[in-house]
Amino acid sequence: MLSPADIETLLLTFKVASIATALMLLIGTPLAWWLARTRSAWKGIINAVVALPLVLPPTVLGFYLLVLMGPAGAVGKFTSWLGLGTLPFTFTGLVIASVLYSMPFVVQPLQASFASIGEQPLEAAATLRASPLDTFFSVIIPLAKPGFLTASILGFAHTVGEFGVVLMVGGNIPGKTRVVSVQIYNHVEALEYSEAHWLAGCLLLFSFTVLIILYTVLKTHPVAHQLK
Amino acid sequence: MFINNFTRSLLALSLLTITSLVYADTTLVAVASDFTKPMTEIASAFEKATGHSAKLSFGSSGKAFAQIQSDAPFEVYLSASEKYPLELEKSGHAVPNSHFVYAIGKLVLWSATPGYVDNQGEILQTGNFKHIALADPAHAPYGVVAEDVMKSLGVLDKLRPLFVMGENISQTFQFVSTGNAELGFVAFAQVIDINTGKIGSGSGWIIPDNLHGPFNQTAVLLKKGAENPAALALVDFLKSPTALAIIEKYGFGLTK
């Protein structure tokens, strides 16, 4: 059965994933919009930067973050100067790492759905004298709704499943940075296989449900989105 | 494309010869990550001395243990603790009574900052630090003895909220060496300067053995290696003066 410590890791994981998903939508929406519409020479480079976590081993990302956010790193010096201390081993650090790690799963579906809207609805909105902000909220968001749903679900699910980055920057602190994937790993290492099975089963069920929703209810194809 | 029968059988024959040669002379060894440096040097000395070769796979002792139980192809297992080899002998994955202590682990309280850790460990009582790193005591041998030390000094409950835990001793070292944790319990082998036999950088306290339980790093011959001359030779070689000298050089103790 799940112990109170296991349940704590599940709750913490969902908390990290929810906050990270909200932040990714906030940052990812304008970024995806820009990427979908721009003809700038920077487009290719920015696209590559966003997609980097897809191909980079999580341990590489985790190691760089540990060094950068540490007291000798540029980010660490900046956060210390702000009086925030350093970010590794903190909940905030974990959220920031998750945002970087899962960003492509939010930006790419959004970018694809923004691109598929095309010029016409925007021109129509312009002729009706809608302000850009009004156009965004009453035209673009409704049209890109499937993209937003896919982005949220994938971003959330991918954050729930992250392991390598958390292991590198988290420090395995109960209630603060010990997420469910780390807890499963701990159980396996400590030879507590039945506890590991329970938690692993929960994650399997969760991931499978998420994909079922994506493929049947939303009828989207996450991989196809990414390849566009 | 046409390949005539002669070429084909020649190819098959040569492949067979190569593989049988490799199998006769090579042994696959699972090694606890704290023993990475000495074992690398021991393996090359072993190759020079015997002509056999040892392929090394480094990782946490617990992970290797789980893999061996799932029939991983390892032939010799150098664990950082006594528990796992004994367990494997019981479960029939290791040759009965083949375990032996190859080294005594030495623990160091270390900081990357020079002058930070005093040579008596007073800082544990008085220090004003935010994080102290150790390997996870739930499964890592270095974590278990680190907890013992804090218990002996009566600071365990006070320090527990400051714990950051590495999944193995290499990761724990990383936390401290990058400065993210001000100090931490690491392996002497990780910080020793092998030319002087002292701590090479930063500052540290080599913790006396009497502050923690026994730290017998134990090896065992696995069933898969029972018939392999290279595996048997490696087990012998680990007890040779050459190997013992290397083990001591890297900051491990020897059994008396």
Polypeptide structure, described:
The complex is a heterodimer of chains A (228) and B (256). With 228 residues, chain A is an all-alpha fold. Chain A has one domain (4-116, 145-227): MetI-like (MetI-like fold), CATH 1.10.3720.10. Chain A has twelve helices and no strands. Chain A has helices at residues 4-37, 43-55, 58-69, 74-81, 91-117, 120-127, 132-143, 145-160, 164-170, 180-189, 193-217, 222-227. In chain A, helix 2 (43-55) crosses helix 5 (91-117). The longest helix of chain A is centred in the first third of the chain and has 34 residues, at 4-37. The termini of chain A are far apart. The model of chain A is unreliable at 223-228 (pLDDT under 50). With 256 residues, chain B is an alpha/beta fold. Chain B folds into two domains: 5-104 and 215-249, D-Maltodextrin-Binding Protein, domain 2; 107-211, Periplasmic binding protein-like II (D-Maltodextrin-Binding Protein, domain 2, 3-Layer(aba) Sandwich), CATH 3.40.190.10. Chain B is built from eleven helices and twelve strands. In chain B, the strands form three sheets. A five-stranded mixed β-sheet of chain B has the order 2-1-3-12-4, sandwiched between helices. Chain B has a five-stranded mixed β-sheet with strand order 7-6-8-5-11. In chain B, strand 1 (26-32), helix 2 and strand 2 form a beta-alpha-beta unit. The longest helix of chain B has 21 residues, at 5-25. Chain B is elongated. The termini of chain B are far apart. The model of chain B has no long low-confidence stretch (mean pLDDT 90). Chains A and B meet through helix 3 and helix 10 of A and helix 3, strand 7 and helix 8 of B.
